Amino acid sequence: MLEKEEHLFERLARERNITVEEMRAIISARIEKGWNDPDLEKRAQWRKIPCAGDIPTPDEWLQYCLKQLKEEGREDLL
């Protein structure tokens, strides 16, 4: 699964003409924004993402998204 994660982050970075590290920082900022969203329903959705630390990493977020797509039968989007 790590191969797909790296591939996606590299692709997103390339499409935006930025580094992978910058792409990860953008994703991290979005995760943090969602994690602390004032809307309790939105925050609850973000809090469903399993994480080893206090907040999901970009890798943990991506693993969760991939799992959700597979569970919903939306593997065609991968």
What does the model show?
With 78 residues, this protein is mainly α. The protein has one domain. It has four helices and no strands. It has helices at 2-16, 20-35, 40-46, 58-71. Helix 1 packs across helix 2 (20-35). The longest helix is centred in the middle third of the chain and has 16 residues, at 20-35. 6% of the residues are buried. The model has no long low-confidence stretch (mean pLDDT 90).
Key traits:
78 residues, mainly alpha, globular
In short:
The protein has helices spanning 2-16, 20-35, 40-46, 58-71. The chain is mostly helical and 78 residues long.
Summarize the topology.
Layout: H1 2-16, H2 20-35, H3 40-46, H4 58-71
Helix pairs in contact: 1-2
* Class from helix and strand fractions: mainly alpha
Low-confidence spans: none
Rough outline: globular
Query: What's the number of structural domains?
Result: 1
Let me know the number of strands.
0
Helix and strand string, N-terminal first?
Answer: HHHH
> What count of helical segments does DSSP give?
4
The percent range for helix content is 55-70%
The biggest sheet amounts to: none
How far is the N terminus from the C terminus? Answer: 12 Å
Give the overall pLDDT as a whole number. 90
From the structure provided, what is the oligomeric state, counting identical versus distinct chains? single chain
Percent of sequence in beta strands? under 5%
Q: Please tell me how large the radius of gyration is.
A: 13 Å
